[in-house]
Write a structure and sequence with these properties.
By secondary structure, this protein is of the alpha/beta class. The protein has three domains: 137 residues, Glucose Oxidase, domain 1; 179 residues, no CATH class; 33 residues, no CATH class. It is 42% helix and 19% strand. It is built from 17 helices and 17 strands. The strands form two sheets. Strands 1, 2, 3, 4, 5, 6, 7, 8, 9 and 10 form a ten-stranded mixed beta sheet that branches. It has a seven-stranded parallel beta sheet with strand order 15-14-13-12-11-16-17, sandwiched between helices. Strand 3, helix 1 and strand 4 form a beta-alpha-beta unit. The radius of gyration is 29 Å and the shape is extended.
Length: 395
Amino acid sequence: MRLSLRRRDRAVAVGSELRGPARVDTRTKSLTRRLRPGDIAVIDHLDLDRVSAEALVQCRPAAVLNAARSTSGRYPNLGPAILSEAGIALIDDLGPGIMSVADGRRLVVDGGTVRDGETVVAEGVRQTAETIEAATIEARSGLSDQLESFAANTMDYLRRERALLLDGVGVPDVRTPIAGRHVLIVVRGYHYKEDLRTLRPYVKEYRPVLIGVDGGADAILEAGWKPHMIVGDMDSVSDKALLCGAEVIVHAYRDGRAPGLERVERLDVPHLVFPATGTSEDVAMLLADDKDAELIVAVGTHATLIEFLDKGRSGMASTFLTRLRVGGKLVDAKGVSRLYQHRVSNVQLALLLVAGLGAVAAALAVTPAGQTTFGLAAASLDDFFSAIRHLVGAW
């Protein structure tokens, strides 16, 4: 029997089996905060989205066990393919019983079967590149239904939030000066890290107001800056970010519920509450627009139907209308890192170096000091070659 153990991972592969400690959480983004290389991730995530899958890949788990179907057929989500391309085993549709596994319990994954020792815990479907591709093709047929549902949700949101969208009713007064300034809104979405790196010269020159949407505040801190404002449900932002001195705006629902309120009060962080039906990134955009921002630059936000569905909320229809509302000021910087990349080859660098040295030599040649230097160098070279010839002749 073949036994292999990766030095940096805690999972053991025995033949076709995978063994490792289970890390269990119904919220994938919460799980990735404590997931370590070699762990077995146990999630309950219907239609695994791209952002969650990329976060899982960064943690390098040995396998991902999903209680739900990673692709339900509603739309062609990209999460399963990302895990497959990274070589991470995905066991699908294991049922709710898998979520009762104790955190830290060592599991054995053999094909689509999950065992605790010799006891079978659950059985599902082990996804392959072929099964994932087939499910994705089939799911494309469901987009028409999702488009109709999206349109209906859009009209419903317009009826309920007309006063906010058109007149700014309910937008709180903030202490952060925004009027006449650029605003950079950061969401932890697709390619947000690369885009932030590309935008460094822009941030340095224009000094925009930095608004982090939930975990986007941590992304700003990781980039070496400090957010001026944090907006969101406060479910994926760190305590470090909340305590960094940024102005905190807690997103509340229209029925009065504010899931993040208890957390900021526990941390004794000064805050304002912004009740709105849409998403936290909508709240950030509407806030910046209402406070007369000159330009709104968005990183990692959602702009396409697939991205809205990936977000997993019918309320994402609000983002469509919000973008229409602030469209004249909005610049979507998502993907800007892929639009422009430096493509300077080593040969070009070498030619540039030679040209530079040639220019320096030409400048020195027309000066007395340079001519003296070249004369001394030529004499030294002549002595060197004479010595070589003498040695060769003697030999």
